[in-house]
Records
---
Amino acid sequence: MENRKKELDKNLFRPADRTEEQSDVMARKSTTLLQDAVRSLRKNVFFMISLVLLLIIVLMSIFAPVASDYTYKEQDLNRSLMGPRIPVLENISFLGLDGTQTKTFNGNNVQAAEMKAKMQFDNQEDFITFETVNEGDGSRNSAEVKATYDKYAAKGVEDEYFYFGTDRLGRDVWTRVWDGTRVSLLIAVAAALIDLVIGVAYGGIAAYYGGRVDNYMMRFLEVIIGIPNLVVVILMILILDPGIWAIIIALTITGWTSMARIVRGEVLKLKGHEFVLAARTLGAPNRKIIARHLVPNVMGLIIVNTMFSIPSAIFFEAFLSFIGLGLPSPAASLGTLINDGFKTLLTTPTLLVFPAVIISVLMIVFNILGDGLRDAFDPKMRK
Amino acid sequence: MRKSNWLLLALVLVLSSFLAACSGGSNSSGGSGGGEGSGDSASGSANGDQVYNLTIGDEIPSMDSSLADDQYGIQWTSEIQEGLYRLAEDGSLAEGIATGDPEVSEDGLTWTFTLREDAEWENGDPVTANDFVYAWQRAINPDTGSEYGPYMMGGVIKNATAVNTGEAELDELGVKAVDDYTLEVQLEKPVPYFESLTTFPTFMPLNQKFVEEQGENYALEADNLLSNGPFKMTEWNHGSTMQFVKNDTYWDADTVQLEEINLQVVKDTATGVNLYDTGAVDRTSLTAEFVDQRINDEDYLPVPDMASWYLKLNQNRMGEETPLANENARKAVAQAIDKDGLVNVVLNNGSTVSNGLMPKDFVKGPDGKDFRETNGDLLTYDAEAAKEAWATAKEELGQDEITLEILTGDTDLSTQMVDYLKEQLETNLEGLTVDVMQVPFQQRLDLDTAGDFDIEVSGWGPDYIDPYTFMNLFVTDGENNRMAYSSEEYDSLVEQASTDNATNPEARWQNFLDAEKVLLEDAAIAPLYQAGYSYLQSPKLQGVFSNPAGNDFEYKWAYADNAAAEE
Amino acid sequence: MARYIGQRVIYMIITLFLIATISFVLMKLLPGSPLANADKLTEAQQEVIFEKYGLNDPIPVQYVNYLGGLIQGDLGISFKYDNRGVSDILADRIGPSAQLGIQALIIGTVLGILLGLVSAIYHNGISDYLSTIVAVLGTSIPSFVFAGLLQYFVAVKWGILPVATWNGFEYSILPTIALAIFPMATCARFMRTEMIEVLNEDYITTARAKGLAGTAIIFKHGIRNALIPLVTILGPLAVGLLTGTLVIEQIFSVPGIGEQFVTSVTSNDFPIIMGTTMFFAVVFIVMILIIDILYGLIDPRIRLSGKD
């Protein structure tokens, strides 16, 4: 560095052409908070993966039920409890997605064990393949036979594919799971948006007007926050007619408070800033100050908070379904599917596995997105 | 896979030896019952520890025999207490505190029971006629708030309803102690099945001194109970475990072989099955998913329940005629449901198809034939007939699109069932839309009472063994009718059975048979299924009787055959 | 400080009064009665039983009676469990719930703090990534999914621990783990952020410049300062545990308050629902109060006053 400096000829430099007007011009195009955030998010690998995953899930939840040959409520007892079967993947045996059912049977000898297997599998001898694990010595249950039952062939539906299998009533689980995902997302997004509107309005008004209004509004808020939301949600669900709206209302009735608190705190802080004072001095009307100066500045915070309230709403919906206060049948949500799946955990675990995996992925994705956004909008938190 | 099996096996071994150690300990403290049982060759082969470990689906709501009003309360109060008679094998009556048959006056209104003199309470007091008078008065006393008191006694025992509503004094109730061992009962009308009623907990005696001493705490804990039955309650960890042991002061203690019954509250079927598989419990109930898996096991045991399930078809909803006022519409609905699919796939819990109102194996006529056998299938599944009837109905009503609302409970089973019913009805009956209304039990009853439904999934379980409990359900303006069904013929048949023919068993039986035919020819209801339960039960459980009414199982004559379980 | 606590207690009472009123009103809007066999009784017979529960009184009278009972700690009599007081039922069931809650809280926070520390100290290293993944999974995956997995593999497949019910310490292990996941993950995330922030503070740099050993810095200066703010998240953690117990007790058949509450909700046993609601509310509010006071005591930077 030092050496280089010496080598430079002073004549190469000339005074910058600084005039009064140009002193304010920025050398580089200024980036807005939003552009800045987007740029940093693009670099966040986890964020981008999550975004893609979320997009896939949303698209699947919208289009999979439409594209499916079945509906979420169409029953056929003849195809009750079929195993999952997916084209192409069915050829990879260890995935267990070929629609067959395999179980081990014990008997005093191989015949006895095979007999048990036949009885278990609808007496469809032609469609059961046996594999002797242990010949046995004639003593009680010493022989062990592994039987594989091709239920699709036995029921004469070889050309059908139930990707996730069917439930007891013969409904296609694939369709039900994606339909349920859509319902869960809908509930969560609606609840988060309502929280947003109420929370922003309440917090904004309290902070903007301040003084006595603020004081009363905050005291009221404190009392509301004191009520355990779990309890209120359950009580609300009990008195409302079961359905999507009942759950949304129950979730929003206490959900807006955190948003209100955050918005109020932020607006209070911003209100004291010089640019607001300046705008006010210049005679800008309240409406304009709120729209031009306050809203854009609290936007980041609002988005981040909403992003976190979506997974918590998804969780609460599932939780309510789990304790038996969810959507009425035959409508499905991830919660009701998980609740049903739990009862058959030991007999047909697939009914639980698929919705449980999707809800877990959704929660993870939303949490990562939320984290990413928070880091992006809050430069202090950036690594 | 292999490895995990080994682990499981090891666990089973450890657990079973642990359990054996446990039960062995308690047996030695319980007395020499085991030896006694095996010595008595006539009653079977009781061997090993006389202990049952059972599951129970929920905490027992009440052990107060006046208040017990659910299956668990009725079950276990029946084991620690004993009334005039006791239900034995196949729902027959065995002697309880009463000896011999009662003396019945000619008009059938006065019944005199002779009590045994060797019956004692746990505390040594004799069981007397006064204990019955006290218990019955307590059950009907409005301050007690008993549900079965007014239900079982109202219209049966003289002045019962008046006493319950405060219009008569307690001592005006038609029951009195002639002396310590003679009980005289006045009835309001002839009740041929009165003996069967007295097996029910509401009619069991109570030791007045003890109950009053305990006051508010009576029957709230194991210590606040006094037994006069085959067993006594020794432990009650609310919501978790309970223990009953043999009551040595019971008058027939020699017959009782079982030393100990342990109950574990298990609400979840999967948990119950796991406990059963590890040998921690000897019996557990199964739901549909597990029936699929276990139906071929040697341990699988289906037990029919006497509850009959059907659709109530409302003809007049809150003052307005429904499409179901049309007989063809009712017939269409009743025949449009594939009941085989319902019981075998949807319910799959041991329930069976029902084509009438009266359950199978509930009552036998004077001719010794089962009611169901005599009356046969009255209303079966027939999709073609249903479609035809539906077409006619639509023509007669002049409507092409009909919407009906179906009311049902909010349990998992109701949900599955109603999904199926909706699909069946909508598929088989063109132009029919079925709206599902699922509500909690209480709300369903409110809507039922108001008659605010088109179709209701409804069931009736009997509390005493007589056709009357089913056949009086649908008399005009009856408490359980609520669906605007009214048939003079049906009414008069039921009326005759409880008046003119009350003391004539043959004619009475014929009245009931005819009444059911009328009911189903009118398609007033659409029979669905007779409930049933499925259990996994260890072969060790022997001599356990299942009852058509009252307590589900009777353990007085039960014993443990541990050798059978080890085979 | 005294003024602050006094004010908070007043709010507490107002809040409890509100909850009591709301739950009373909601319960009155709902159908529900002490009758188990209403289909078998005539209306006159039903009235007789309602009388015993005071349900024939005008609603304002019932309300006053209810509030009066609450003040004396009397939560009424259960509809379903004849003659059993709600307070007795709760007392019977508090043991298992408290045991689970406390075990889970201790295990969760201790493990969480450790995970968070590891993350922060080996910032951006492999162990940081691993523990961050654990933390994200822990906060995201619903507790009932975890509980199902644990039950299926540990108890059913491998047979290591009992599947369910409550007959001794080994029965509490699986539910405790399932319940501890959420506090653990939350603590880990929080601890990581706090610790990284603390390690970047000037006084740490100073200590380092003075030549203090790495471990000494972390233990003497780092952890102590990072732990203080942890108190603030104890509130949300406690709430999470409360929600957790409802499902976890259900799954593992634990005879605790949460399991009782869910049962009562499905059977419309209103005295128990209202009683448990009040119980939860009191526990919750008192806990938050204690945490706030604690926080004020440990961190002198927070000047407690009537306003936030």
---
Amino acid sequence: MKRSVTITFLVVVTGFFLSLNHQAPIYAASSGAAAANQAAAPSTSDKPAGAHSAEPSGAQLYQNDCAICHGEKMEGILPAFPPLAGIGRQLSPQQITDLIHHGKGRMPAFTKLRDDEVAALLHYLTASQTVVASATTPSTSPALAAHASALTEMGRSLFQQNCAFCHGREADGGETGPDLTRSKLVAADVGGDKIGEVVRNGRPEKKMPRFNFSEQEVAGLSDFIHAQAIRAQSMKGHRRGVDVSDLQTGNAAAGKQYFNGTGNCASCHSASGDLAGIASRYEGLDLERHMLYPEHAKSKVTVTPPSGQTVDGTLAYLDEFTVALRDGNGTYRSWKVSKVKYSVDSPVEAHVELFSKYTDADIHNLMAYLQTLR
Amino acid sequence: MKFLRDIFLLAVSAAILSFACPHLLTAQNVDAAALLNPSKDSWPSYHGDYSGKRHSPLTQITPKNVGNLSLAWAFQTDQNASIKASPLLVDGILYFTVPDNLWAVDARSGHQIWHYTYQPNKGDHIGQRGVAIYKDWVFFMGPDAHMVSLNAKDGTVRWNIAVADVNKGYWTTMAPLIVGNHVIVGVGGDMDNLPGFIKAIDPETGALQWEWDATPPAGTPNTTTGGMTWIPGTYDPDLNLIYWGTGNPTPVLNGKPRPGDNLYTCSIVALNPDTGKLAWAFQVSPHDTHDWDAVEIPVLVDGTFDGKPRKMLIQASRNGYFFVLDRTNGKNLLTTTFGPVNWTTGVDKEGRPIPNPEKEPAPDGRLIAPDEGGMTNYRSPSFDPKTGLFIVDAHPSYSIYFAKPADGDYGWAGADYGLWGKGVLEAIDYQTGKIRWSHELGPGGAGAGVLTTDSGVTFTGDAHGNVLALDTKDGKTLWHAGSGAAMQSSPITYELDGRQYVLTGNGGVLFAWTLPEGMVSGGKSASAK
């Protein structure tokens, strides 16, 4: 085991230096469960820095033992090696000490570090958290600026790898993912509080996966996204997106006629009822998407269990095997489909039926008409 | 004398051993014969075999007993990324991936043998679809458009070469295809105006053997870029042709700077695997402006069509059309839709859809069916020879597409928004294109691959994360298990120690399903390998 760990670490180190030199990189293959690693990494702990000095230097220890993977400025090398900047806000001193002593995943255990060396390292790691915590506040200190840009750069790297395919490389939208530089949620976000929630929970209904990023990684991501939003605002007209002015090609009178006639919209909706003031609540693309398919519209369901006592509620889940609702009290209830009778009332399906009937002019005209309902 | 006798005994025992346990000698040695005629206890290439049918001759799991299917084991990748790989099985060891990660796992127990982690890199991490194996070597693509050759025994790296420049915007996600002495690989990258290509790499040295370019070099006037080649093709050893789908042209949503058909984007191409020379091409989306890559599996089927025996190629394409071609010459036998499609004015005399210029993305938006994800996507369909059914995860859907001059002519160059979609498993009669049965898979869409077996069972997944076993003849549900995450990969099956396993990747977990031991041991269904 010790030998394989030794090899692993040597390969990591070699690969890192090779990639620094832009050579064909080689990386690590680890044998067996990495968590079982117990041996120290010899290339570092055989000659620990400060081993002979009375007061070990945390900075020196960090540079010798940690920087190779976690970066000289604790910025990490994502996705493989997490940043340590701000680690003191995520882990307790005991947790950090345990990690150093026992390793985790690909991280080797540093069993030969003396207690005073670990203490020095801990002090160094946690002292620097204040630097990062204040990195978002304006400062003229080059060190602080370096940390701030390291955070954004880390966020950029994370974004390119995990988000760019859907949201575009510049966060301005791409395959299936919306333009984040125009997102209301991003505009309302402060320091990753709202972005972090979406990132960690995902949006399953929109097929956005959840990402298990650390607080630090979310901070980096939101920094990058905010930077992109600022950049996008300064490039008006040069990036793609849909403006309210783009959606003004229709004829409101023709739209009203379609609404009351061919489209049969009036059978469910009313300009003076549910749609009164709709154009004040939504505008532009948002309004058009709501008009074409209001994806959050609720369906009703009636379930008849074998007892015969029917239960009504809002449809909460339905697949081939399970039906679930929330009843009038907000209580969630579910049944095996095979054990009950149920019927779903889903008025939103009328929108699906219209898709194959609309012309593009119908849509533009309807848009023009709805925009008169202020 | 004793020494000589010992030598003799050793030689005899070695000979006996080699007869008794031939697999010991061929361990992890995937040769041309193994790829051409895969044994039941293997799944040695992305599709399982060269045809791309994703159909298994195994019959232990049947429509009658599949209701008893249960979990043999599950492997946790502990990664954020979903498994999009089709695992390989060679000599009892499974090889599968997520971006930057490759595992070798014991197919009997699901425990890890080794785990390889790729270097940090800036390539697009959208997915990793698996590896290829040739002899004792695994071929893995990094997100940064590098090919890595590793020792199958322990995951140590032999070499690492760049197949494209990540700094220009290329990335790689696919499982390479091994044909003869060639490791054949394609690339992704349509956020930039870059030409797509296919390369053949020498499995021993990593040297380039040939390159086929889908489009002219960037900057060639009045031509297109694009035509990315990101899913492994199929191979007909008799015709000695590989069949490969190419992706959309770039700029993606703006067709004005690239007039004409934009060959060879959105095409099925037939190439000589030894030279890379084009034998024929069939374009499924001339002048695409909707991002509908034609990389869906070109499935090779031998059968009758219009009463005549034919060597065919079948593709259910992202653009909503179902094609049957004569794969000897690329001539079209059938073109039909398999869901709502509204972007054409008809089909031309060669069987190609004719794009409606009115349905190109516009400043005030165009309603388009299907959506950008398409009527189906890269996850494999399956062809069941007994019923003649081509079974595909379909995605009826609508979206709106926008493009205006301000969006420019580079990369995406527009915007599109999905409005609505759902998942439906469709069983298409290949001779008519008629849908014989369909099975609803839920709102949004499922996106799972499909596997069929000779016993008449179809495996796939629904939009809710259920793994499904259906009756191939009518699409009725026979068994299901909630897995907690959608299946974003294509199932495989194999038989080990007399037991048939079905593997599904759901989220970041690989599940192995099998019949309870008591049901199959010694029974007539337990067949030798």
---
Amino acid sequence: MAKPKLKRHHINRDWCKGCGICVELCPKKVLELDEQEKVTVARPQDCICCRLCELRCPDFAIEVETQE
Amino acid sequence: MAVKDYLRERFLPHMWCPGCGHGEVLGGLVRAIENLGLSKNEIVMVSGIGCSSRISGYVDFHTLHTIHGRALAFATGVKISRPELKLIVPMGDGDALAIGGNHFIHAARRNLDMTAIVMNNRIYGMTGGQFSPLSGENISATTAPYRTIDRGFDVVELAKAAGATFVARSTTYHVQQMTETIQKAITHKGFSVVEVLTQCPTYFGRKNKIGGAADMITWFKDNTTPIGSKAKQENAALIERGIFVQIAAPEYCEEYQKVVERATKGRK
């Protein structure tokens, strides 16, 4: 199976509570919290599309879309 | 269907604190149902009282938000009247094993076909951080400023002894395993118990100086191990996770139907 390629991260800023779980547990440190304590994608080129941020986000605020 | 199709999006963002593990359990549960391809109409979710029990408000199934500790009793009623429905009963640790301890052991004993999910954050969050029967020894809580002396229940051992036919444990660190376990529990015929160790950063984490939500999740990674691992033999303090019991036994509703047939024989 080919490695999935990132299309984009969908972030719902209204639902994100800035708990930082995704930021700290991302294996590639792709994500960061901005000055409003909401998640942003700082280094999308490093994303390996493991979806752990999506699965661990308690607020359904992040979704990883991959290329078909 | 996508995950969000199973949620009542108008009630989101949910009321849980930032970093609360209950949201992760909700995600795992909804993904398990999505993987099984169940229709929203065949699921009934029954919950009691507490932070965890607010989960039933966010899912677009048939939902009942009932009284403290009695979720399993209400679920029993639903199951007996409509045995074709799938019953999912998420409960907090206090709701399931303190206030509802009696209902829990007897639902397990009867082997009713339903899935009980114990969202164990080891504290009463909604009422302000009192210790629960699952807090265990040497824990700081608002009602235990000099730390607890009470021993905690072991949900797995208790469920096993009470007669549950599917018993498993997972954590919010192991999200993929949690989803798979919940999936197996839903498909299991009989009373299934899934304990999910989850984090309460607001009370448990802060009172016990474990750190933030991510630190608490990492604690689950460092302090749990798969069943029967070598690490467990070397360090008995590790908490085992996985499926402990998966056996077939007569299911209550089916047995009850036999009683109905015996009683109405020759009179129909």
